[in-house]
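thread from #wetlab-drylab

HS: before we spend reagent money on co-crystallization trials with zinc ion, can we at least see a predicted complex? here's what I'd submit
DV: go for it
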Amino acid sequence: MRKVLVLNTTYEPLNVCSVRRALVLLLKDKAEVLEESGAALHSERDAFPIPLVIRLTTYVRVPHRNPAARISRRAVFARDRHRCQYCGSARHLTVDHVVPRSKGGADTWDNLVTSCAPCNRKKGDRPLHLAGLRLLRQPQPPGPAAFVLLHVDHVHESWRPYLSFAS
Ligand SMILES: [Zn+2]
């Protein structure tokens, strides 16, 4: 089932919805089309262009960073764009505790990062500075784009510019 990317008035990614839901929003003037697929959905009398990306016409207030967001391996990978946060590799990914569990490190957004297996091995049970590793960026609760990425199996090419809005 094809999905449509829904953006806030600010162009911030909000969520994904079905084509049908997107068409309802468009017909009610609650959204505008930013990207179309070129294909159409046919009803008895009409043909509706199938949207890929829509933008709401009324601002929806959302908490920007949600620390309560459920943490999972998949969510950590999505937040980190499937890149090792030490070396940038996209291969053999694992989840690493920045402060090792054995040293009291918690399962929190700011202590879990995507790490490739070699970096994870190199780090072992040591704190970062002793392992000679540095974080590419400070981990924090995921932004809206990561949530969108979590809920789809396939990211359409047309979505990418909008998803780089926030990571
Ligand atoms: Zn690495």
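DV: Helices lie at 19-27, 73-79, 117-123, 128-131, 144-150, 160-163.
HS: ok that's useful, forwarding to the group
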